[in-house]
Design a protein that fits this description.
The protein is mainly beta. The chain has helices at residues 11-15, 304-313, and strands spanning 28-33, 53-55, 58-59, 71-77, 81-89, 104-110, 142-149, 162-163, 173-180, 183-186, 193-194, 197-202, 211-219, 236-244, 260-261, 269-273. Strands 1, 2, 3, 4, 5, 6, 7, 9, 10, 12, 13, 14, 15 and 16 form a 14-stranded mixed beta sheet that branches.
Length: 318
Amino acid sequence: MQHLFVLPCSLSALLSTGPHSRSTSVESITCVPVTTAPTIDGDTSDWSSVESFEAPLTGALTPTEYPYGNATIQCVYDDERVYFLFEVAGPYRFDAADKHKCAAISTMFKMGSEAMLYDMGNCPLAKTSCPTNLTECDDYKVDIGAHWELATTEMGVAYGTSNGSGKDNVAGKDDEYAVSPSCRMDDNDANAANEWEGAWTHTSPNSTDGSYIFEMSRMLSTASTESDAQLEAGKATDFGFAIWDPFESESNGWSDAGHYVTGCSADWISLRLVDESGNVEDDTSTETSSDSPETSSSGIIFDSRMLSLSLVVLGYAL
């Protein structure tokens, strides 16, 4: 059974009880071991038996909700690699001459102990540029994997890994790390590589409906501990996902700051790589049951402390 821990992304979303309300944020995603890995080709049939998790998307710098709905995330892993399927509703747009008029995505993994989802790690010493000594921000480091801008790619084509740098000169799915938006770089240490594979498609490219499908994979462990989060069976890693909407502006496409992010743009999702027994070492994720006293009669689950915070932010106090 899927368990969701729900938080309000905005007060208006919290109070909405309509069928299209998207006021929830999933706290954890379960990634299960498999013996037969999915083929990276953009075909979702390999994923039909894998549990899916819905995650709302909100503006990275604003409380605006993604206009087309939630992201659906699935995850499995084998002895060497972790595999993701991301499905995000949205009308098709593609312009090989302008990357901003193509969809783009990114994942983010926490590396530093103080790293925040908001502001790509949010190192206080890197608000406007990288500090002279970048190691001063090591506690705020995040791994930005598969930052994928699609303009040089085609639907249904698998794009592979590369060595020597995180830069992907063929498909534009760069492997990066950051401590803030002003201090973001392609993986560039002595052991750097781009360990990501990917394929994408759209379910209805000839209409105004449909969804983008991104099928992705990366090595669980890599040679670069400086710029890559190291994933391991039986352990959890803090995770986030973002998408850039090619229709953010009809004339200009997406902007750098205009992306939409999971976790109410502030909270990590726990990516739980459960072992063969379904367990995760030192798991601290919380499951909120349907009979929790903080479940409202409308079925919206919320934390009263978060509601109080939302009201204070809006200028009111309980």
